[in-house]
Design goal:
- The structure holds 2 protein chains of 2 kinds.
- By secondary structure, chain A is mainly β.
- Chain A has one domain: Lipocalin, CATH 2.40.128.
- Chain A is built from 2 helices and 11 strands.
- An 8-stranded antiparallel barrel of chain A has the order 1-4-5-7-8-9-10-11.
- The relative contact order of chain A is 0.18.
- Chain B has one domain: Transmembrane di-heme cytochromes, Chain C (Fumarate Reductase Cytochrome B subunit, Up-down Bundle).
- Chain B contains 5 helices and 2 strands; from the N terminus they run H-H-H-E-E-H-H.
- Chain B is elongated and about 55 Å long.
- The chains are: A mainly beta, B mainly alpha.
- Chains A and B meet through loops of A and loops of B.
């Protein structure tokens, strides 16, 4: 009798505490995520590029979006603007100083929903050893099962930073850089 | 039951390796053929190639062990083979080793030429040793051609073994099924 009461209580406490945030691993194995950037070229057009290699994950539960979190680590050496010499210049001390700062990271510190499928994720963006708080304007696209037995959730996020924020305003002067993230995570 | 080979037949290790590898080779061919018919939306689109790669790597392990085992064991002697038969079988057997080694190396490159690793079951990742985007297509063609050639030779090999057994009525097949004369 007591055993039954105890069991019921334990079950009620564990199952009754509401939804748990689920862990997702950003799908870079099969290339379904991207980190891109765009910066003005002398005012004539834009140079776009990406980071080919990065890892990360997010915790997310649609029933409780403001408890979500996101973290990404970027391998700076994998920068790719489709131009070998330019990529080398970007890796140099003029810009990313890759030999002293091999990675950049984003760690979320808070989330505020702004609509049914939109939110602003605030987080610490660390590049070249300098950490600044940025707001990532995020759109939740969809979640569901894929044909191969996994469960996926997809988002896009965008923010704008200035080159001077990260001590890179030398050769180009102080330009705005638009950073966009497209990510698809696989539930673990 | 003898583990090692003797002059009259193959020991149990050599026989086990032979038939295990035969199953792997025919199995990999079948799996490879079938997996190329799958569409993006097939539930097996990811898992079939993963299994194909992992079994292929296992086969590579078997082959390496087989080389060492062959060098460390006597080869059974078969009296009654003509010079032509002897030369032909030596050529085929060594050609076979070179062929399946090439198939597996080409296969390895298909998956790793873009710098990606191969996941061996869920145990460990095999790294990429050479990166050159654009070569995957060539690696694929080589892998495909050599795979068909391997199967053709395997059929020839099996046919020859049956010929030895039923027509010539010698111990060639028996030395690989039952082993040495005890």
């Amino acid at each position: 009798m007591f055993k039954k009461l105890l069991l019921t209580t334990v079950l009620a406490l564990t199952l009754g505490t509401g939804a748990f945030a689920e862990s997702y691993k950003i799908d870079t194995d099969e290339g379904h995520s991207a980190i891109n950037f765009s910066v003005s070229h002398l005012g004539f057009s834009f140079v776009t590029g990406r980071f080919d290699k990065f890892t990360g994950g997010f915790e997310f539960d649609a029933a409780n979006p403001e408890a979500a979190s996101l973290n990404v680590e970027i391998i700076i050496g994998s920068i790719n603007t489709n131009h070998g010499k330019r990529d080398n210049h970007l890796r140099s001390a003029d810009f990313f100083d890759e030999s002293n700062n091999a990675t950049a990271s984003f760690v979320s510190t808070g989330i505020k929903t702004t609509g049914d499928k939109t939110a602003v994720i605030t987080g610490d963006l660390t590049i070249k050893g300098i950490t600044k708080s940025v707001d990532l304007n995020t759109v939740f696209i969809a979640e569901g099962e894929d044909p191969w037995g996994n469960y996926r959730a997809g988002f896009t996020g965008a923010t704008t930073v200035k080159l001077s924020d990260y001590d890179m305003a030398g050769p180009l002067g102080d330009q705005e850089v638009v950073l966009t993230v497209i990510t698809e995570g696989i539930r673990q | 039951m003898s583990y090692r080979n003797t002059k009259t037949g193959y020991g149990s290790i050599a026989r086990l390796l032979h038939w295990l590898m035969a199953i792997c080779i025919f199995g990999l061919f079948g799996l490879g053929y079938w997996m190329r018919t799958l569409t993006y939306y097939s539930p097996y689109y990811q898992s079939a190639p993963d299994l194909h790669q992992s079994i292929g790597i296992t086969l590579f392990g078997f082959l390496m062990f087989r080389f060492i085992w062959k060098l460390a064991n006597p080869s059974p002697e078969h009296a009654g083979l003509t010079a032509l038969e002897h030369k032909g079988s030596t050529l085929l057997h060594w050609g076979f080793y070179a062929l399946i080694l090439s198939v597996m190396i080409a296969g390895y490159f298909i998956s790793t030429l873009d710098g990606r690793v191969i996941h061996y079951f869920s145990l460990f990742d095999l790294p990429s040793v050479y990166t050159q985007k654009g070569l995957e297509k060539l690696a694929g063609k080589i892998h495909w051609m050599l795979a068909y050639l391997t199967i053709a030779l395997a059929v020839l090999h099996a046919g020859a073994a049956l010929w030895h057994h039923f027509i010539k009525k010698d111990r060639v097949l028996v030395s690989m099924t039952k082993g040495p004369i005890e």
